[in-house]
């Protein structure tokens, strides 16, 4: 479904991503792990068109999508949920998801237009799926951080993705919220058939759910493989046990 080949991006001469490689097959849950600053967020922005790579290729369902603007890549079926919560605080939970659906359908964004009546069923379905239906009428800004992260995922679902990319979906969450988010990721994969690519810096957590893991360090892909292959890799062991910060 997704094939990233020798992707590169530098900022003012600093190589944030120097050699990223990734293969994601349909129906898989794939994790990208690596310490802070490894280039995970930059990689996700390169895949989704929020940044333009200096070099390399990104194939989505066989087509090289490098150079396409974010909205076109989104239309093709890749949706990104950002590391930093990116919701409309003053809108309700329901309205945040509805706006995403309407904007996907290119309907008017004016919430006072008849369009507001549209997409109600779909919005409710998504809120049901992610477990936010009871909070549909809450003002988004008043939600807990955990619920805001889930709402962010719900908004991404409004774009009808085939590939859902989640940037640190459990960052800042309590252990209980973290397990709920893990369950949600598994459920979206199993029940909705979504292919999911997410990043994390906690290795134990990804071993629990990912079919396949790609490890990044200093902008480079060290390895992509199953948990055993990753665990046994000496470079990974050095990166994680050799004193590098993984906060
Ligand atoms: P991660 O998500 O793995 O923590 P990032 O992709 O956010 O890593 O960042 C990788 C490196 O690139 C870091 O050293 C970061 O400071 C740098 N970087 C990221 N975005 C920019 C930018 N817009 N301008 C300059 N440097 C950046
Ligand atoms: Mg990041």
Please provide a written account of the structure.
This protein is an alpha/beta fold and 247 residues long. The chain has nine helices and ten strands. The protein has helices at 40-47, 70-76, 93-104, 120-130, 145-157, 175-191, 203-209, 227-232, 234-241; strands at residues 2-11, 14-24, 29-33, 55-60, 63-64, 78-81, 163-167, 195-200, 212-217, 220-225. Helix 3 packs across helix 4 (120-130), helix 3 runs parallel beside helix 5 (145-157) and helix 4 packs across helix 5. The radius of gyration is 18 Å and the shape is globular. Mean pLDDT is 90; it is low at 243-247. The site of adenosine-5'-diphosphate has 11 residues, from strand 2 and helix 1.
Kindly provide the radius of gyration, computed on alpha-carbon positions and rounded to a whole number of angstroms: 18 Å
Q: How many strands, which pairing sense, and closed or not: the largest β-sheet?
A: 6 strands, mixed
Q: Roughly how much helix do the residues carry, as a percent range?
A: 25-40%
Q: Could you name the ranges where pLDDT drops below 50 across 5 or more consecutive residues?
A: 243-247
What fraction of the residues are assigned to beta strands by DSSP?
15-25%
Structural class by secondary-structure content: alpha/beta
Q: Provide the spatial order of strands within the biggest beta sheet.
A: 6-7-8-3-9-10
Order of helices and strands: EEEHEEHEHHHEHEHEEHH
Principal-axis shape equals: globular
Our count of helices gives 9
* Ligand roster: adenosine-5'-diphosphate, magnesium ion
Mean pLDDT: 90
Separation of termini?
31 Å
Total beta-strand segments: 10
